[in-house]
Structure formats: C-alpha cells, structure tokens
Design brief:
Structural class: alpha/beta
Distance between the termini: 45 Å
CATH topology of the largest domain: Rossmann fold
Number of domains: 2
Largest sheet: 9 strands, mixed
Helix content: 25-40%
Length: 522
C-alpha cells in the first residue's frame, strides 16, 4: 500500500473559488485566449449575471444544465455560474454524435443545454430542441428567436440574485466517461469531492498565484476542468486554447508564456513533430504534464531532445481526478506515473482483494476525499466500484522499489494470447519507435487456437511505405512473443471523445472486416 502524504493545502471552497484572485489581483488577467481576456473581477461579474439569467429561465438548484461547446473561455463563466446558482454542470464532449448526445441527455435528465450554434442540427436530430423548449441556450450566433443567446445572458442585470445554500453532498458536475470499457456513464462529483479534486491539483502541481496554467485539453473533460479551476483557486492565470493543434497552441504559448502545461500524448506528439516548435517556445515552463493515455517512450525522447525538459507523467480517472504525479520539484522518473498525490492513498490488489507483493502488478484501489459521489442514476454500477471508502479504478499498476508507480493498462483491455497477458500500450509504444509509424492501436482478435491474437492497426508517416512483416519483426526484436501476428494499415486512427486511441472502434473495425489477413492493406 502507498500511504497518503499529509496534504499541504486545504480543500478548495467552491463557493469562494475566485476569492484568492479577487482579494489580491482583481484587475489582473484570470482567463486568457487569443481572442478574449477576462480579469478576476470581470469573470466574477459575468458568472453572477449568467447564474441569475439561468434562474430567470426557471432553473432551480439541483437542475442539470448540459453543455455542448468547443473549447472556449466562456465555458469557465458557464461553470462558475452553475456553481453559484447550485445548478449541476453536465459537460458533453464536443465530438459527441447526436446518438451520444441523446444518451447523455437521457442519463443526466438535463433540464437545459448550452450549445454552440454549429451543433444545432445535432440537437434537432436527437429531439433536444423540442424536449428542452425555452431552455436551449445558443452561443456563437444562429439559433432562433426562441433560444436565449449566451452573449446576451452574461450582460443582464443580476439584481435580486441570491446564491442558494448548498451542502457538501450536493452535486456540482457530471462528467461522462470515454466509454472505452462500455456505455458512457455519468461520473458525479459533489461540492465535497470537487473541493478535493482541486486541492489535489494544487498540491500535485505545487501551484501558486504566480503560475500561468495552460491546460491544453478540453475543459469538457475532468482534466481541463480541474486544472483550470485549480489554478484559478490560488489566483493563477488560465490560458484557453480553442483547439490542440499547433497553429493554435504555439501562438498562445509565445504570447502568454505559460509556466505549467498539460497535454494529451497525441497532441504533444503533433506539437513536437509537426508544429515547428523550438526550445524557446517551452522555456517558460517549469512543468509539462502529459497523461490520460500512456506516454510513448519515443515521445519522451523527442520532447527532451527538443526542449531539455522531462515530461512529468501522472495518472487518474474521472472517478477520482488526479491521483499520482512525479513531484515537480522532486525526482521525475521517465515513463513512471509518479507517486500518490498528498491526500491520496493507493492500494494495489489481486483478484481476491489482497494486496500484491512489492514489484508485482495489481488493480489500483484509491481512497481520497476526491472520489466521486457515484454514477448518476446508476446505484448498481456505483456499488461495483466503491467499497468501504475505496474506489476500484480497474487500472493495473505496479510499484518499483522506490515506490514509483508504472501504468500497465486496463483490465478489460488486456489481450490473452496462449494464456499470457499482453498489454496493448506496450506493443503500441514499440511500434511508435519505428520511424515510419505515425500512430498505432493494438487489440486482440479471436483465435480458435490461442484465444486471442495481437492485431496492430497502423497509420504510416507521410511518404513512407513500411511493410507489415517489417513492423512485426521490429516489434519482435524488442518484446518477443508480444509482437503482433497481424498488422493492418489504415488512413486515420480512430480516437474516442477524450482523444485516446479508440480500441472499441478498432474492435468494431475488426469485426466488420473479420476476413482481413495479416497484410499491408486495411
């Protein structure tokens, strides 16, 4: 068991989330994008106006307000308004199809939705416009006369608005899981757990009011959400990129000089390889954190060669938030997900629930104040993962002799070949070391003799022509029997709503083309 270290910061008071900035630097920038800037004072006023406007729409504390929005600074205003009014924020991934929107609306039983005008047709297709008549708020133009516009609501007079009294167990936000192991579920965080979510970010990243945080990921996911509000809670500044593409990220970095940046591995790979970035672009950073998916060794090497910095990996999940990280001012071990954050207790267990021996891998169980309240409307699913104050994350980790943790994969994604466990991430890491491989996704496909065979789906780098056999031999030299039996080349790697390799989509592709042989064409 990895014991929790004493926390160095108190849980964040959600009702006073902006207080540190309002007291010490009210007219300094709080939220900045390439298109707009808000000071702490402006952020506070706009969110109060919006909370009052939501109340005038007939919404009451506890009502769910969904949002289908691209990455914009205005989302922070919306979330703050929900907190002030006691409404439950329900962020939808902007990549959701109309079927996924319908599912999330049904699960959350949302009473209103904020959406970007360009997604209007998707809301119409899933029946949301009719079902939520009068409570469909539009952003970015378009819409119709019956839909209130967010740009108007944030400038309305908030006179008469009073913040409701809320308890620690009242819900704040519902995040939808990526659906990598089944239908997407609504992870519900209360005022108590959200305060610990932000505290863990402040502790783990060692944030101060001098930090400029660039959470280069979607604020509709828990990572972007807690990284942003963690920084704001100590009076720091938040930078909002409209997309994670280099032509958006690099100008913002060069203009604002972030001190902390968090980025998914795929986006960071793109920035390093194809973004024309220089070492100077990263020179303001004291911490570059990547996670949410395994950071390939090739990315670590290329990033360090370019910048002289080491990638700080961490680990967590929607149900518990950020749980581990390499100490920013301590020893960073490349490839490791670090140590439990102060205030987080971790136990690695076998299938019987017993703790594994030192050095062995086990399923990660977490105990922390940041654990979710539960899955919205699904008590049975909640009871499966929460026991006696602990959460079964379903992730497989191991601890080395120094206590540093190493991510091994998810239990449900393990490939069992001839009785041996093979982790997709390990095979993908080796494939990505090949100079002609742009991206790789690995799954198990049914085999009558061996149970499952390893199949790799590969996107080639431009102007290259590797053969399947060359790649199989390349991997075999590194990890032997874990090498794929089959390689299928595809034009584009499917990603799930959180930007990770979408293995269920690859499974579906395999089932749809079950006769695809080990070949150079997919």
């Amino acid at each position: 068991m990895s014991e929790a270290r004493p926390p160095t910061s108190e849980p964040v008071a959600i009702a006073d989330l902006l207080q540190a900035g309002l007291e010490t630097r009210p007219d300094d920038d709080a939220v900045v994008s390439l298109q707009q800037r808000w000071t702490f004072r402006q952020l506070d006023h706009a969110s109060t106006c919006l909370a009052a406007a939501y109340s005038r729409l007939g919404l009451e504390p506890g009502d769910r307000i969904a949002s289908l929005m691209p990455n914009r600074g205005i989302l922070i205003v919306h979330y703050l308004a929900c907190m002030k009014g006691g409404f439950v924020a329900v962020p939808f991934n902007y990549r959701f199809t109309h079927h996924e929107i319908a599912h999330a609306l049904e699960v959350s039983d949302a009473q209103a939705i904020l959406h970007h005008a360009e997604r209007r047709h998707d809301l119409e297709d899933c029946g949301a416009i009719e079902a939520l008549a009068g409570r469909v708020v539009t952003y970015g133009g378009g819409g119709d006369a019956q839909s209130p516009h967010l740009e108007d609501l944030i400038s309305e007079d908030p006179e008469g608005f009073g913040a409701p009294e809320l308890g620690p167990d009242d819900p704040v936000v519902i995040f939808f899981t990526s659906g990598s192991t089944g239908p997407s579920k609504g992870v519900t965080h209360s005022y108590a757990s959200t305060s610990h979510l932000l505290r863990n970010v402040v502790s783990g990243f060692e944030l101060t009011n001098e930090d400029i945080m660039m959470p280069a990921s979607s604020m509709s996911h828990i990572g972007g959400f807690i990284f942003s509000f963690g920084a704001l809670s100590v009076g720091g500044r938040v930078l909002v990129a409209r997309s994670m593409l280099p032509d958006e990220v690099l100008p913002l970095m060069r203009q604002e000089r972030p001190t902390v940046m968090c980025m998914l591995p795929a986006a960071l790979f793109n920035l390093v390889r194809d973004g024309h970035a220089t070492a100077d672009d990263f020179s303001s950073l004291r911490l570059i954190r990547s996670g949410s998916d395994k950071v390939p060794g090739e990315l670590e090497d290329e990033f360090t060669e370019l910048t002289g910095l080491e990638i700080d990996e961490g680990w967590g999940c929607s149900e518990v938030g950020l749980a581990t990280i390499n100490p920013p001012y301590g020893r960073i071990v490349p490839g490791s997900i670090g140590l439990p954050i102060q205030g987080v207790e971790l136990s690695l267990r076998d299938e019987t629930g017993q703790e594994v021996a030192s050095g062995d891998q086990g399923t990660a169980w977490v105990r922390s104040g940041s654990i979710m309240r539960g899955y919205w409307g699904d008590d049975a699913a909640t009871e499966k993962v929460k026991q006696d104050g602990w959460l079964d994350t379903g992730d497989l980790l191991r601890a080395d002799e120094d206590g540093y943790l190493w991510f091994r994969g998810r239990k449900k994604q393990i490939i069992v070949h001839n009785g041996l466990n093979i982790f997709p991430q390990e095979v993908e890491d080796v494939l990505l070391e090949h100079p002609e491989v742009a991206s790789a996704g690995v799954i198990g496909v049914h085999d009558l003799v061996y149970g499952e065979n390893v199949r790799a789906y590969v996107v080639k780098r431009p102007d290259t022509a590797p053969s399947a056999q060359d790649l199989i031999l390349f991997v075999r030299e590194e990890i032997g029997y874990k090498a794929p039996e089959e390689v299928v080349f595809i034009e584009e790697m499917p990603l799930n709503p959180t930007g990770k390799t979408d293995r269920p989509a690859l499974k579906a592709l395999a089932e749809a083309h079950h006769d695809v042989p080990s070949a150079d064409t997919g």
